[in-house]
Amino acid sequence: MTDSVLLWLRRDLRLADQPALLAAIEDGAVIPVYILDDDTPKHYAMGGASRWWLHHSLESLDAALRAKGSRLILRRGVCDVELAKLAEETGAKRVHAIRHFEPWWRNAERAVAKRLDLACHDGNYLAPPGSVTTGSGGQYKIFTPFWRALKATLPPPEPSHVPAHISAPTHWPKSDSLADWDLLPTKPDWSTGFGKEWTPGEKGAHKRMKAFADHADRYDETRNLPSVEGSSRLSPHLHFGEVSAAQVWHAVADAGGSVDVFLSEIGWRDYAQTVIQQYPDYGTKNGRDTLDDLGWRTGKSADADLEAWQQGRTGYPIVDAGMRQLWTTGWMHNRVRMITASFLIKHLLIDWRKGERWFWDCLVDADYGSNAVNWQWTAGTGIDSNMFVRIMAPLVQSPKFDAGDYIREWVPELAGIKGDAVHDPEEAGCRPRGYPAKIIGHREARERALEAARQAR
Ligand SMILES: Cc1cc2nc3c(=O)[nH]c(=O)nc-3n(C[C@H](O)[C@H](O)[C@H](O)COP(=O)(O)OP(=O)(O)OC[C@H]3O[C@@H](n4cnc5c(N)ncnc54)[C@H](O)[C@@H]3O)c2cc1C
């Protein structure tokens, strides 16, 4: 009888280019397991949109495993406790897993390693986070030199194929039922727009990747235009590990044109992991302390403004379009993420951590490292950062990046406004009655933010 081993799956929900799966197959009969653990991440338990994604991704993974003679075992609880229970029930001699870098996953890996024989493998990034170092062996803090050094190690290894067969244990342990986990919203069901936009799972990831490969050469020309589908929309698939960074790299690297700009964005994803390795509490703590005393607005009026921002009712069409796209589909265009984040932080003078939280709950690609790095970059609090005093002007950004059709799509009250008036209907004198007036004027907001920055020094 072959010994069995556990394959502990987390954000690596795929069969192709899955080094932990390959190692497990070499080691014995494989018991793939996903543990829903809301205790270990605490503040960072998965948000609503991510849970929707997870449900469908696990369903798809189970089907793919069954086609290979295997299946997915589901358990709920603290990872090390549940894995130890499973090892005892099945006699599994080892646990194979892909390594993850969120601080709670690092803690969980330490806890598992205390109880069981844990073999961690690298496989979700272009290079193992922490492996790209400066001349003196330190970690990079700034993206550009990090990317230069990372690029010198590339291309990443050729991705491995889906194994032909996965050997099964003689007896399968019991599994929870996915439906009992209640990952999908019911009352109310806010996810109807998600299904129209996304196909979670490995197949959906590959379909999206192939579709993008056809226009990857024009990435730089179109990626900043919210009205055009110019970027890959691979972020949730990459986040959940339904496709690896190496697979994406090899699928597009020879596209020519401006594909190098796209590859550098994949580099940003690696960079975010380097940052959270060095600063594990980057999601809640400023990377630089110079703005620790910034007088963020609090109280009733700030709360009302936060709610208007969340609901896409600020009176700034580009901001409102982005926030409504986020709510409806669980995703927002990158340029608009920058505009909406800057608006919350600088125009409304609300602490970036409140925006980080909202994105954490609403994004299907909510990713601890990428979310924190980008919020802190926008806030000017990060270790590699924009300056706080560089304030984005949404009403300039909107026509500059030709966002008219995007606004008309996501803000139905403005759908009938033709031409450039849609960027600022209030100024053009055609604001429909149902659409709010600006929550604050741009100049007034800018002066308030600059004054707050002066006071903080
Ligand atoms: C305030 C704010 C919060 C963000 N939060 C997240 C988040 O939680 N999760 C997330 O994956 N991205 C986040 N981003 C980064 C970026 O907006 C998304 O990765 C991108 O919009 C995803 O769309 P795409 O797949 O079409 O990207 P593409 O432009 O096609 O890029 C390809 C891939 O590169 C990676 N990538 C691209 N831009 C960045 C970036 N700036 N930082 C890190 N990785 C990047 C993503 O994995 C993306 O799928 C955030 C950006 C901002 C400004």
UniProtKB/TrEMBL annotation:
Domain Photolyase/cryptochrome alpha/beta: 3-126
Originating species: Sphingomonas glacialis
Domain of life: Bacteria
Pfam families: DNA_photolyase, FAD_binding_7
Family named by the database record: Belongs to the DNA photolyase family.
Keyword terms of this UniProt record: Chromophore, FAD, Flavoprotein
Cofactor(s) demanded: (6R)-5,10-methylene-5,6,7,8-tetrahydrofolate; FAD
Name by which UniProt lists this protein: Deoxyribodipyrimidine photo-lyase
Keyword presence, Flavoprotein: yes
UniProt keyword annotation of Translocase present: no
